[in-house]
Amino acid sequence: MKTVFEIFFRDVRNIRKRLGAVIMIIGLCILPSLYAWINIAACWDPYANTGNIPIAVVNEDQGAILNGKKINVGNQIVSQLKKSKSIKWVFIDEWQGNYGLNDGKYYALLDIPSDFSNGLLSLTTSNPEKPYIIYRNNEKLNAIASKITDAAKNKVAKEVNTNFVNMVTKEALKTIKSNVNTNTGKSNLVALKETLNETTKNLSDTQKYISEANGTSADISKYLSSLQSTLPKVTDKINNLEKAAEGSKSLVSATKNTMNSTSNNLSNDMSSIEAYNSQIQGLLSQLKSVNNSSDTSNMVNTVNELITINNSLDSLLKSDINYLQSINKTNPNNYITSLISSMQAMDAIVQNNANSLNQLKSYIGSGASKDQINNSIDSISALSNELSIDMLSASNNFYSNVMPLINNICNDLNTSLTDVQGLLDSTKVVVPELNALASYASSTCKLSASQASDLSGKLSKLSGDLNGLTTKMNSLSDNDLNDIMKLLSMNNDKLADFISSPLTTKEVDLYNGGVFGVGLTPFYSVLAIWVGVLLCCAVLTTEFKNSKKHEHLNMWQKHFGKMLLFLVLAFIQTTIIILGDMFILNVNPVSIPTLFLFGYVAAIAFTFIIFTLVSIFGNVGKAIAVVMMVFQIAGSGGIYPIQTNPSIFGILEPLWPFTYAINGFREAIAGPIWENVYKNLLALGCFIVFFLFFTLLKKPFHKLTIVMEHKFKESGL
């Protein structure tokens, strides 16, 4: 071991004696860090500048008429885009847009056709035609820009859909309420049932009379006159019913979709609540371990992370409680009431946890004793365990009782929708028949015996239609009528807004990673460490130059003595890279010691790998190190998820040291999960041990490598 250090100190003295060598070593120490910093800074926050990406917008929409009011959806889209700063929207005509797109002036073009508003309004008719916005993309300009413009296009389409549903729903509700009095609507529908029954009876009597007294047209005229006084009343009520059913159809359909979304959201939230609580329990265990090691700064970071997660859990519970209370108001049920009580109890525990976490934070800040801090942690852990028990009970109630109940409500709404559709179809057939009969009755004063047979046929057909309509009217239960009236009594704006956009997504970052560049820091830092070692092995010799004083040294002493200089240089390069990440790029790792630990372990592993390859195989070893670097850039999951790459990269991923070094840097920056930290350290250690034994190949390959290097020099290349 002493001899190994003698070789190292000899190399250090040789560097100090020569100014050129000192400058070269300084350059080797700084260059890798520049490689990392420049790449990270260039990718720091690219999505913050998407407002500079020009996209052309061509609006040719001519507008349309909705309920006597002219609307122009194309103009509404343009107004919304003018307020948006996320993309540089350029509003021009069709010729300029297409020319600029082909010429590369614009990355993409949105063309709103002249019949766009008409196409949207066709969705409210029996023959809907799906409207479209033409999207053209110049993918030649930039691959990533194409993805950004595609996302912008999808956002525009989503906003158009939401705004259109909102507008149409408001108009439908206005039309329904103008024709249906929500206070007397139910009684009118009941009265319509009775009128239909009365009309059916009158028609039956008329048919009977025609068959018995075919020659007495005067008596038939008398009956039809009586019937004619009833028909306008029925026709008027059926026309009102048709208007109400048309609006109710869209309203019930939208409500059913909303209930389905609510059921799915509550199911997802149950899983999220359980995941948040599990994360809290894991961080509490970690916090207790850190407390025993007296790492105060790390404890404060962990407590802050606990407070963030606890706040997210509180928001999620309150949101779900509001959802359930809304459902319970319109459909009261003991199971839903029980679930609301359980979730309110869980929220109370979460709020107690918030107070306890703030108290724990003050304990840590005031330098309280370990026992006092541990007692506080145990108290919070007990509350978390109590929350787990309540969560299990609430989850069982939800999946066993509440979720089937919500599904039943959706099924009932679906049945109501079918009934309303059937009723609407029937009224469309019956109303013309009734009007025809009324006209026919006005001329019955001149009825002859030959016409009586024709009239009897018409009455038979009408009687059948009325019987079908009466049956469908009677199938509407009291609960169905109550549901329709209840929906119609709601505020137009609120109901339209809810139907057009029934839910919002709340984004919660588990690790508060920040900007895009922070996420790329692990990859480029690890890559810079590898590049630094590779530069050293390319510029400096890995062979020991013999002197009389060191003739007695064996090959292994020379190998490791020479490697020691490369290890020290790798440590210096790594230190500069990490310090620059922190103080120049302002990356704030959760665990600074873990970051330096992985940096130095990666430096050792990379030095063992590259130095051993170059020492054994010479220039061929340098080529192998470059090939390994190329494969690791694409196949270690540093930038894109490994699952998005061809399958061969996923198979090779566990074989690369980059994989474990990058994962280690991520743990240190975002917050370590110690099980993952130990696993990645063990993997890097395996690479070190493997190439330590790989050094044994140096002796059999040494002479062959020297001969090949000599032949290469003789070539003069």
Helix percentage range = over 70%
Kindly report the average pLDDT value. 76
Note the beta-strand portion.
Answer: under 5%
Structural class: mainly alpha
Q: How are the strands of the biggest sheet laid out side by side?
A: 4-1-5-6
How many β-strand runs? 6
Count of separate structural domains: 3
Q: List segments where confidence is low: pLDDT < 50 over at least 5 consecutive residues.
A: none
What composes the largest sheet? 4 strands, mixed
What is the count of helical runs? 22
What's the arrangement of secondary structure elements?
Blueprint (H helix, E strand, L loop, with lengths): L1 H16 L1 H24 L11 E6 L4 E3 L2 E3 L1 H11 L4 E4 L2 H10 L4 E5 L3 H6 L12 E4 L5 H37 L5 H28 L4 H77 L2 H35 L3 H32 L4 H73 L6 H27 L2 H11 L3 H9 L15 H24 L15 H29 L8 H26 L1 H17 L11 H6 L4 H14 L3 H21 L3 H17 L3
Parallel strand pairs: 1-4, 1-5
Antiparallel strand pairs: 2-3, 5-6
Helix pairs in contact: 1-2, 1-16, 2-15, 2-16, 6-8, 6-14, 7-8, 7-12, 8-9, 8-11, 9-10, 10-11, 11-12, 15-16, 15-17, 15-18, 15-20, 16-17, 17-18, 17-20, 17-21, 17-22, 20-21
Structural description of this entry:
There is one protein chain. The protein is mainly alpha-helical. The chain folds into three domains: 2-44 and 522-714, no CATH class; 53-179, abc type-2 transporter like fold (3-Layer(aba) Sandwich), CATH 3.40.1710.10; 185-219 and 234-488, no CATH class. The protein is built from 22 helices and six strands. It has helices at 2-17, 19-42, 73-83, 94-103, 116-121, 143-179, 185-212, 217-293, 296-330, 334-365, 370-442, 449-475, 478-488, 492-500, 516-539, 555-583, 592-617, 619-635, 647-652, 657-670, 674-694, 698-714; strands at residues 54-59, 64-66, 69-71, 88-91, 108-112, 134-137. A four-stranded mixed sheet has the order 4-1-5-6, with helices on both faces. Strands 2-3 form a two-stranded antiparallel sheet. A hairpin with a 2-residue loop joins strand 2 (64-66) and strand 3 (69-71). The radius of gyration is 40 Å and the shape is elongated. It starts with a helix and ends with a helix. The relative contact order is 0.09. The mean pLDDT is 76.
